Amino acid sequence: MGADATRRHHGNRHGRSEQARLAVLEAADDLLVEKGFAGVTIEAIAAGAGVAKQTIYRWWSTKTDILLDAFLQDAAEDLPVPDHGDVGRDLRGYLRHLAYFLTRSDAGAVLRALLGHAQHDSAFAAVLRARFLDEQHDRDRLAIERAVRRGQLPADVDIAAEVDQLVGPIYYRALVTASAIDEDFTDRLVDAFLRRVGLTTNGDRPSGVNGRAELS
After folding, report:
1. What is the pLDDT of residues 64-121, one digit of tens each?
2. N or C end of the chain: which has fewer CB within 10 A?
3. Which superkingdom heads the taxonomic lineage of this protein's source (predicted)?
């Protein structure tokens, strides 16, 4: 979360102000990165944000609710899907952002903690899916869907399968193996996708090539 949200709050003086709300979200982010999920408490968040616990409980019931809101705000800001009119360029930019977001940003640390908590709390898992995972799935598909609408890709391309092959290795490395994900790795995923759908690595169809099989 950005550094613009300041923490000049004392007790309930700011009531339900947006400034206080942002300070709470930032404090929760900072605590998670510094101390891990177990170290995040309502008391510590209140102290970090400079607000009373009662102020926090007006908006949220649990620390996971706070962390989820903090994460959703960061995701909305940090995971745009580029739209340059070229599917290869759009996917390269998006996958690079996604890899950075998952592995190197504070928001990625929040997501990993939330996913871990969701394994032990089915009710929270449903909330996380409804509020983020479904939306993220749509975001992962967007560049390909735009390319289909532009006519750059065939209408019968299996978007679900292609998305799995594009983003699946990134999520696997970020959330399971913790292996490095550099730009060369994400670019290779895009190049493989372009070859599968019959495009060059520049996103154009090779001269004289009409079908996927001719490029293989």
Report:
1. 999 999 888 888 788 889 999 999 999 999 999 999 999 998 888 888 888 988 999 9
2. C
3. Bacteria
pLDDT at 3: 44
CA 187 to CA 106: how far, in whole Å?
Answer: 24
Q: What is the dihedral of CA 148, 191, 88, 194, to 10 degrees?
A: -20
Output the CA torsion sign for 15, 17, 20, 22: positive
Residue 159 to residue 139: CA distance in whole angstroms: 12
pLDDT of res. 181: 95
The topology under which CATH files domain 14-61 is: Arc Repressor Mutant, subunit A (1.10.10)
CATH of region 78-198: 1.10.357.10
Task: Please give the pLDDT value at position 33.
Answer: 84
What six digits make up the tokens of 67?
């962390």
